[in-house]
Specification:
Length: about 500
């Protein structure tokens, strides 16, 4: 009941004219930028992060939440009309949604994506409202040893999930940790990794790194490979669903939500796994299996609901234990830190009114997205006709202005370009950049907690495995490191045994 009252207080704050205006601006800008091809939610949020710098914390976070949800919706529009998913979780929407668009059913595909996003986002936000305080109360019991183990879980699981190669994911993580350690050591006062460059004594602003790794890397990559042309599927009618489409869609929305929120809430969650599970489930349960691969509406409804439910679920570990489980969550964590707010177990106790206002604004933003995007679907479709060179020229301008606003010196622009080129090299080496952001943010926190733990034990490392929670978390770390190595070996051995058995089998008479 206390949580319900706190949520009502959050609505009282979120429903003021000022906050409603910032929520509307956030969802509008987020959708408009998220619709542009090749720009996923993470890049959308990173690009627009500096826009919120001059606002009060509550207004900024409400606008930020609107940008987040708007970017998620805009990505589905791009996938359906242009067959260009902005992130891996939107691949299924592109697979079936673009087939529907090519068959003249773009309006139905956009409508089921929008309504599914609304249903899943609302149910996911309800789960966030009532699950987060419970998780936060449990996480308050964490001490420095538990935090060290938790950071280790975050490092290995996020590195493994955001890249097909565990070694490359860990390499990206180390790059981020190294950047995060640049500056003056708080405890000793000694400069670290500054190489005698005075402006680096204050460290590198997280916003500059995030904008460089996402926005500049994307722009440099397109400039090098050539922008090419686009073929947008036309949208001639309003985004509405027929009764038959609605009957086929609503069970898929609920099933996708049931998969997306709990998996997205896990520390090793994310949106990719529930999205693919939802597609597989819909394919098995649908009475129209023959349409899959040719534009089945369930193949858009279920995965889009799973994607948006997971987006709400991702906020649970982010708000309660300060753990980003996706690239977008890592950028959102940057937004909190830019206002001196550190998500974690103490967040609900120290900044309760702000957090509940933010959660209430997610409900409001969901309604705004539905009301805004169904009538304006044709407007967003026209945005897709902007030439790619114009889009990425604008991205470069916004990225440069954002970096300058964050730091205010020309050195920051040099650092921005240098890290952008580093991101380009990482892309060509197929090293994911998202773990670098996680390492950049969580690396200094892990170092601080490790030093505190060793100080408490007077240098005895046994404190790191001194309780059941720490032991469990270290077992999770070991499994996350061993499973990607052991599974391929086991598969090869199984295949070799199968070949031997086939070769030794007597020939048929």
């Amino acid at each position: 009941m206390d949580q319900f009252q706190l949520l009502l207080d959050g609505f009282a704050s979120a429903l003021t004219w000022e906050h409603l205006l910032w929520a509307l601006i956030g969802v509008t800008i987020g959708t408009a930028v998220g619709v542009l091809p090749g720009i996923g939610p993470a890049l959308t949020v990173a690009l627009l992060l500096p826009v919120t710098f001059r606002l009060e914390p509550a207004s900024a976070l409400i606008m930020f939440a609107g940008i987040y949800y708007g970017g998620m919706y805009g990505g589905s529009t791009t996938s359906i009309l242009l067959n260009t998913p902005g992130e891996s979780a939107s691949m299924i929407a592109a697979l079936e949604g673009n087939k529907m668009a090519r068959a003249g059913r773009a309006a139905a595909a956009l409508a089921t994506a929008a309504l599914g996003s609304f249903v899943a986002g609302t149910i996911g936000t309800i789960g966030l409202s009532f699950l987060s305080p419970v998780v936060a109360k449990f996480a308050v019991t964490f001490g420095p040893p538990e935090y060290v183990a938790l950071m280790a879980v975050a490092f290995v699981t996020v590195s493994a999930l955001l890249g097909p190669n565990l070694l490359k994911g860990l390499a990206s993580l180390l790059v981020g940790i190294a950047i995060g350690l640049i500056g003056i050591d708080v405890q000793t006062g000694q400069p670290r990794l500054t190489f005698g460059v005075a402006p680096l004594l204050d460290g590198i602003d997280v916003v500059i790194v995030v904008v460089a790794l996402f926005a500049l890397t994307e722009s440099f990559s397109h400039a090098r490979s050539g922008t090419g042309g686009t073929t947008v599927q036309p949208l001639r009618e309003r985004a509405v669903l027929s009764r038959a489409d609605l009957r086929r869609s609503w069970p898929a929305w609920l099933r996708g939500t049931a998969l997306g929120f709990p998996i997205g809430s896990l520390p090793a969650g994310g949106a990719e796994v529930p999205t693919f599970l939802s597609y597989s489930l819909e394919r098995k349960l649908s009475a129209h299996r023959h349409e899959f691969g040719h534009g089945a509406i369930e193949g858009v409804a279920g995965p889009e609901a799973a994607n948006n439910a997971a987006a709400a679920g991702v906020l649970v570990p982010l708000l309660t234990i300060g753990l980003p489980t996706s690239a977008t969550a890592a950028v959102i964590l940057t937004g909190f830190q830019s206002y001196g707010i550190q998500p974690g177990p103490r967040l609900f106790a120290e900044s309760g009114p702000l957090v509940w206002t933010l959660i209430a604004s997610l409900y409001v933003g969901n309604v705004m997205l539905l009301v805004l995007n169904l009538p304006l679907a044709r407007v967003w479709a026209k945005l897709l006709t902007i030439p790619a060179y114009g889009i990425y020229a604008g991205v470069l301008v916004f990225a440069t202005l954002g970096a300058f606003a964050a730091g205010g010196t020309t050195v920051d622009l040099v650092i921005l370009c240098a890290i952008g080129l580093l991101g380009l090299l990482m892309r060509y080496a197929e090293v994911p950049v998202a773990p670098a952001v996680v390492g950049l943010i969580l690396g200094p926190i892990a170092e601080s907690q490790l030093r505190r733990a060793l100080a408490l034990s007077e240098g005895d490392p046994a404190i790191l495995v001194s309780g059941p929670i720490t032991v469990t978390l270290w077992i999770v770390v070991a499994l996350a490191l061993l499973i990607p190595v052991v599974l391929p070996v086991a598969r090869r051995r199984r295949a070799a045994l199968a070949e031997q058995s086939e070769a030794s089998a007597p020939p048929p008479s």
